[in-house]
Amino acid sequence: MSEKIEEGARRAVDVMVEKVTALTKTPTTRRRFLKLGLGGMGAAGLYLAGCAPSGTGGASPTTKREVYSVNATGMILGNSTLCVGCRRCEIACTDYNLGKTQPSIANIKINRNYNFGPRGAQLGFWRGEGTYGNFRIIQETCKQCPHPVPCLDTCPYGAIEVVPPTNARVVNQAKCKGCRTCQRACPWAMTSFDESTKKAQKCHLCNGAPECVKACPTGALTYVPWQDMTKLSPARFVVPAPVEIPKDVKDACVQCH
Amino acid sequence: MAESTGYTGKVLRIDLTTGKTSSEDTIAKYKDYIGGTGLGYKVLWDEVPAGTKAWDPANRLIFGVGPLSGSGSPCSGRVSVTSLWPVSSMELPATGHMGGEWGPELKFAGWDSIIIQGKANSPVWVYINDDKVELRDAKRLWGHGIYETVALIANEVGSDVHVAAIGQAGENMVRASCVICDRSHSAGGVGSVMGSKNLKAIAVKGTGPVRIAADKKAWKDLVYEYISLMGCNNQGVVPNQPQPWAEYNSTDTRWTAGPGRPWGAAYPPVETGYCTADDLNKIGLRTHKGIQDHGLAYGIKYTMGHGGCFGCPIRCHTKLDIPQLEQYGVSRYVQNTCIGIAHASSMYALVSAKFPQSDALVWVKGMGSQIADDVGYWPDYQQGPRDFSYLVESGKLKDLVPEKEYARYDFKARDARDPSFVQTLFTRIAFKDGDIAVAVGEGPEFMEKRWKEIAEFHNKDAESQCVKLGQAKHHSAEDFGQVGALVNLPYNRDAQNHTHINFSACGLPLALKKEIGAEIFGTPDAVEARSDYKPMNKGKAVYAKLAVYYKELHDSLTMCNWTQPVWVSPRKDRKYRGDIEMEGKLFTAVTGIKKTRADLENDAARIFTLHRALTMRYMNTKDMRTKHDVMNDWNFDYPKDAVPFTPGNYKMERKDMDLARDMFYEELGWDKATGAPTKATLDKLGLGYVATEFGTKGLLP
User: Residues of CATH 1.10.599 domain(s) within chain B?
Assistant: First the structure.
């Protein structure tokens, strides 16, 4: 790549970094984000333009790779007092999206908390949660994490994308290679793996009309404006060390941080 | 090869004697019997010869699910557990039914049903992890109650497991014992069959799918259409009290939600408010079952929520918070419904008026449910407790058992309505601890044989509520005249049939029910107001026939017979009609096998008639009319001065019931004189093999 083009690309990246820094420091609406002129990069995200995969020497980006994910606009909130454990949300998620009833890969998780709550079976279970405890059934929904998004940023293939208008973090089935990294990365174990397609999947908010919310017979699920739940929710498990951030993502992090 | 839809394609067989497991092709062997009870009856017919007893290793225990189980079709969570029935004094075939999540989990694991035979050398439990099936040593579990058994298993294989287990009652071969799954879902009567096989529990983890044949959009539209036709528990389609949005209301229905009717013990309390017919995000609030089961004040006070079975929007199990139970060493959280929560009250008082609504009543009922569901005692639709209270209150118990045994019970605690009484009694029943516990634990039919006082009580005294042969009445003549009475005849246990009350108690005005009934039964005369019955007519025979057919159909598909059929609906735009074609639509959409209502009614006829044939085979008689389809005298003699077919009572008349049987048998294609299926009917239904066997045994009419 010629020096001139390289210089131009570096300047473009600097501009991007400034704008992104401003973005991250102030609450911003999607409209403002677009006005910042990053829209040309793809309204939903910020791409590594001009970063060639190492060793190729080429200037043009061969892989568009989201690094900074703009916040989702909506999320699903579960009220556990109202949850009656019917699992029609799990049913609706897989029935109406995948055409089969398979709660084990539903994008809303009820069954794993149904018996004993999120902490599972222990001595003295009648003082715990779940059906064998105090009857509280915790509905687990995808938090559509703000940047940095564990599943999206650890995916080696850039297969998880921010999809407008909801900006849900969505597994692109064509790009997914079934490596299961996202399953290991999510602290709340919210991604699923469909053995019949050998691909991962996760909550995509049904593009703004969540089936689970519609299906809930008590209104225990609501579709509300997004807010950051990641600091409020204890992780379901500690992300194991072997989950690595892909190199191209790591390199980009340095530019802002 | 196309992937199986609805069905998984494989039935699991477990031989506990050899320890071997195998699989069979569902469609090849059982397609004409759908699944559930149909499959169970077919297995009994093919594999369990006459003379086999419930506790013989050769008896089969079939956990039957069907193509709709786990499909996500509304109310698709139930399991039909079929076997020779230890509670029946002749050990005739019957089915226990349990709901919860276990049945769908079995489908997700890839299995269409489980057939269990033989007997393990020592206690085992079965672990089904998708297609991996293992027999594991139950040494550590045996002797534990059901709740702990589940926790111990969950610790071993993961907390998302679903477990069906017996408690100490089943282990100790108490006849009146059950299998429980998912906390409060009880398959009555079959607990000791598992115990006799040394089988403690079946734990299932299923990660696979139940595939739907119809395309996604069509399926979604059908499901939402269906849910829009659903009412409340027992398909009441109008609210229980006047509400501004509703054209009609009726105290018949369990649509008990409304302003000022919260789940009062929830944190924070959940106001149910107006649950209008069109708001499908409040359908789960319509049935405030706490109010239904405990009255307004106590229902509000103790209810913290509701629960129920997989995929059901109605939620008929009430979650109670009874802090007072903790002082007795049990959990304060109690989940159950209907008789499951009511039965212990009858251990304290034969007549419910003697133990009116109160805190004490809730504590007693809560304790009863908590213990019974842990030790796995099955109160036989409350018949067992009634029999006990009769013996106590009549003074007869004192004479029937040794003084020392009688003195072991603190009857003052019973008088004081102290929960400790039932806590002690149920625990003793589970361990066969003493003559009283043994007698109650044998169940009402065997108690009739043990003590003629009980046989007399059952036959003569309406307060026994025993309709026939030691079986509790269950929506009999009180619901609705001859229709209910007929429905209570053909089974070998309490009828467990709600088809007829889901229609007749739906809450619509009588004129409207008659109009809709005419469309279904051929005449408005099939439908009557409660306690205002007229002599038998053909329409009622048609109604009774459809009632038994649809119960069998639902228990085979499986669909919940407490919320279905949807012959009526809350929808004014449909003139409150439901959709009698719905079972066919669901079956076709899920399995891809096209079946109409007529096809399914024919399948149901086959299944129901096979049940009849099984009963005859094990009774070794064709004279079902006089030996099986009998009714205790009080049905015709109580109240003493009441006149049948005048308003205000449900007293039946012997001659009229004879005519009712005539008409019922005719509808079913059974011989009038004997109540035995004719050869023509057997052949027509594809049960020619039954006719062949019966021909050699003189069981054809």
Answer: 475-564+596-697
User: What is the SS3 string spanning B489-529?
Assistant: CCCCCCCCCCHHHHHHCCCCCHHHHHHHHHHHHCCHHHCCC
Q: What tens digit of pLDDT does each residue of A28-39 get?
A: 444 444 444 444
pTM: 0.93
B310 touches chain A (CB under 8 A): yes
Find out if CATH 1.10.599 is the number for domain B475-564+596-697.
yes
Three-state DSSP class for residue B263 = strand
Candidates B228, B296, B229, B294; CA nearest to B258 is B296
The distance from CA B442 to its chain's CA centroid, rounded to whole angstroms, is 19
Backbone Cα Rg of chain A = 20
Tabulate helix, strand, coil % of chain B (nearest 5): 45, 15, 45
Q: What is the pLDDT of residues A31-78, one digit of tens each?
A: 444 444 444 343 334 444 333 333 333 333 345 565 789 999 999 999
Q: Homologous superfamily of B10-205 in CATH?
A: Aldehyde ferredoxin oxidoreductase, N-terminal domain (3.60.9.10)
Q: Closest Cα partner for B261 from B301, B223, B209?
A: B301
Cα distances (Å, whole numbers) of residue B545 to B38, B520, B531, B683: 17, 12, 21, 19
Q: Are A69 and B295 contacting, i.e. CB atoms less than 8 angstroms apart?
A: no
Average pLDDT on B119-125 reads: 98
Cβ-based neighbours of B28, under 8 Å, separated by 6 or more: none
3-state secondary structure of B264: coil
Residue A62: C-alpha distances to residues A153, A157, B402 (Å): 18, 12, 92
Cα-only R_g, chain B: 24
Q: Is this complex's ipTM strictly greater than 0.90?
A: yes
B442 in contact with A at a CB cutoff of 8 Å? no
Band of the pLDDT at B276, cuts 50, 70, 90? Answer: very high
Q: Among all residues of chain A, which has the CA nearest to that of B309?
A: A86
In total, chain A counts a number of residues equal to 257
Mean per-residue pLDDT over chain A, rounded = 82
Task: Tell me if A81 and B268 make a contact (CB, 8 A cut-off).
Answer: yes
CA B267 to chain A, closest CA, distance in angstroms equals 7
Q: CA angle, A59 as apex, A57 and A60 as ends, to 5°?
A: 125
Q: How far is CA B223 from CA A219, A221, B537, B569, in A?
A: 18, 19, 36, 14
Best probe of the B interface among A83, A132, A206, by most B CBs < 10 A, is: A132
Tens digits of residue pLDDT in B165-213 = 999 999 999 999 999 999 999 999 999 999 999 999 999 999 999 999 9
Q: In chain B, which segments carry CATH 3.60.9.10?
A: 10-205
Residue in A131, A206, A221 to test binding to B, most B beta-carbons within 10 Å? A131
Q: B109 touching A, CB under 8 A?
A: no
d(C-alpha B39, C-alpha B613), whole Å: 14
Quickly list DSSP for A22-62.
Answer: HHHHS---HHHHIIIIIGGG-TTEEE-TT-PPTTS--SS-S
Q: Domains in chain A, please, with CATH?
A: 3-64 (no CATH), 74-247 (3.30.70.20)
The closest CB to that of A99, out of B160, B212, B314, belongs to B212
